[in-house]
Amino acid sequence: MEIHFTGVFIAISTFLIIGLCHPLVIKMEYYTGTKYWWTFLLVGIVCLACAFFVSNVVISSLLGVTGASFLWGIGELFAQKKRVQKGWFPMNPKRKDEYDELKKEG
Fold first, then answer.
1. Would you say 46 and 68 are in contact if contact means Cβ atoms under 8 Å apart?
2. Of 54, 44, 4, which is closest to residue 24 (Cα–Cα)?
3. Which of 26, 66, 82, 95 could staple 47 via S-S, CB 3.0–4.6 A?
């Protein structure tokens, strides 16, 4: 009987990639707000584009998962700002004015 670890490796890697993107979104929103959301877009598109041209199934899969996670992170970045406004996460006191603007709008 032959055992294949590729699927399990991709599953564990996917879990880790998503797990690393979560704190990345939190830190990015804390330090820079949402003004650099386009970096998530750029990284996501580059990773997805590269996935098309890599013949190795594992690497192509990981590039695809990374790209999709960064694209998903764009929405999470804006949602994180709302979570901070609700008090669920700490606010960066250096950017207090940005959160005050949200209160006036919402």
1. no
2. 44
3. 66
Vertex 64, ends 47 and 35: CA angle to 5°? 50
Q: What is the pLDDT of residues 21-70, one digit of tens each?
A: 999 999 999 999 999 999 999 999 999 999 999 999 999 999 999 999 99
Q: Bin 33: left if φ > 0, else alpha if -120 < ψ < 50, else beta.
A: left
Average pLDDT over every residue of 78-99: 88
Instruction: Check residue 55 and report its DSSP letter.
Output: -
What pTM was estimated for this model as a whole?
A: 0.87
How far is the C-alpha of 56 from the C-alpha of 39, rounded, in Å?
Answer: 26
Question: Does residue 4 sit in helix, strand or coil?
Answer: coil
